[in-house]
Amino acid sequence: MMLAEKVILYDDSCPLCQLYTEGFVRLGVLPRAGRVAFGQAPKQCPEVFGRLDIERGRVAIPLIDRTTGEIVYGLDALFLLVGHKAAWLRPVLRQRWLKATIWPIYRLLSYNRRQIAGCEPLTTLFDCRPERHVGWRSAWLMIATMGWVASITAHTLAPVLAIAALQFLGGIFAARHGWDALGSFATNCLVFSILLALLPWWPVALAITLLDLRRRAWVFRVQ
Fold first, then answer.
1. Please, are residues 114 and 13 in contact by the beta-carbon 8 Å criterion?
2. d(Cα 113, Cα 105) in Å, to the nearest integer?
């Protein structure tokens, strides 16, 4: 049975947010009208948008009940939708340890989703970009850096080491453009590291990484 009275708001510049909210529609959990982009919400459903805790909604996806006005955020919203589709999972989803385990991962991804995706914000009525959080941004930078160092040190090929040196200099340049640029560039370096581990030829990994970097170039133009 579809949750016809529910509306979920998602970050329309985040590919991952678009993907999993579309999944709820395709699985029959939500109607098409129950999936609304944050940037269009003030115009499409002002009565719903007006009930939101905006700052909380930036980092925890909101699910609103049109009938009762009740709003649940983040993992509570996702667990409710998943539990509705897969009733056999409800006892597991109610376990506090599960939420406590997933919560840090959710926060890490939510606060850094724009830097991970590397997509330029859309020009809409409302931008739901989360406020910069030094702790979660630092955590993402640490993860990306550790992955990059681990991958680079596993390769002794001169071209790979030369690329790593250029990436290090690029990181210094990115840092001068602020935390958003540094987070996005660190993600690009992590992409190169993962591709090095998965692909047999480093030139292919480099080509894909350069394409990804070109897609992220807008960050360096933002002041």
1. yes
2. 12
User: CB count, 10 Å around CB of 29?
Assistant: 23
Q: How far apart are CA 111 and CA 130, in angstroms?
A: 6
State the Cα–Cα distance between residues 199 and 10, nearest whole angstrom.
Answer: 34
Higher-confidence position of 46 and 72:
72
Selected residue with higher pLDDT from 56 and 219: 56
Q: What is the largest CA-CA distance in the chain?
A: 63
Tokens representing 79? 């667990």
In the prediction, which pLDDT does 148 show? Answer: 93
Question: How large is the C-alpha radius of gyration of the chain?
Answer: 20
Global pTM value: 0.89
Name the nearest CA neighbour of 11 among 107, 115, 95, 130: 130
- What would the DSSP string read from start to end of 43-98? HH-HHHHTTS-HHHHHHS-EEEETTT--EEEHHHHHHHHHHHH-GGGHHHHT-HHH
- Scan for tokens 């340890």, then name that residue: 97
What is the C-alpha separation between 21 and 11, in angstroms, rounded? 10
Average pLDDT estimate for 126-139: 89
Alpha helix (H) residue ranges in 176-201: 179-198
pLDDT band for 222, please (50, 70, 90 cuts).
Answer: low
Cα–Cα distance, 69 to 121 (Å, whole number): 29
Question: What is the mean predicted confidence (pLDDT) over 99-118?
Answer: 94
69 φψ region: left (φ > 0), alpha (ψ -120 to 50), beta (else): left
